[in-house]
Amino acid sequence: MDLDGSGVETVVEAWEGKRLNSPNDIVARSDGLIYFTDPPYGVQPPDREIPFQAVFALDRLGVLRPVLDDFEKPNGLALSPDEQTLYVCDTARYHVRAFNVEKSGLVADGSGRIFCTLDPGQPGGPDGLKVDREGRVYVAVALGVWVYEPDGTLLGILGLPQRPSNLNWGGPDGKTLAITAVDHVYKVRFQVAGLTPPFTPKPA
User: Fold this and answer.
1) What is the pTM of this model?
2) DSSP 144-201
3) Is 174 exposed, middle or buried (0-12, 13-18, 19+ CB in 10 A)?
4) Is the dihedral of CA 70, 55, 156, 84 positive or negative?
5) What is the side-by-side order of every strand in the sheet holding 129-131?
6) Average pLDDT by consecutive 10-residue portion of the chain (204 residues)?
């Protein structure tokens, strides 16, 4: 899409000739590689052409490949500031998983781990997910936005009048977190900036 909203083009809609299920959320690496989740929300079971719910990677040459395929409902995802960790929400399982990312864009074998388990005591699993420039992880879930240290320690919950669904950093300095929730959009100012493109990853 051009900046003025014109020139909309479909980048990808199938893998190995099979229609994607329901691409949901997306994050781009600084080299242009794109990760996105493909849950089954928008397609009925008899119509699904891909039998698993995956996280896909799309490189700048247009090559699409699944990098993870063992999710029940993959949803929000984000990269750490150094781009070496990929976080992915599994909404149905009420947890966020973390994976080591190789330079090729593939996920390192056996690196998957539960980063955090969210237990709000009511329906509404983790949905959107964002990371700030110091590596803290922000997860939209029932009760509000749950904020975690990079080691998985829960810092606290930013309570909202409605259940949030997704998040995005904005503002001229990247310190405003926009939060979609049912029929409202909220915004909260923070002292630290979020990861917003374009950015330079922290050195390893």
Assistant:
1) 0.93
2) EEEEE-TTS-EEEEEE-SS---EEEEESTTS-EEEEEETTEEEEEE-SS-B--SS--P
3) middle
4) positive
5) 129-131, 137-141, 144-148, 154-159
6) 92 95 94 94 91 94 94 95 96 96 92 94 92 97 96 96 94 95 95 80 55
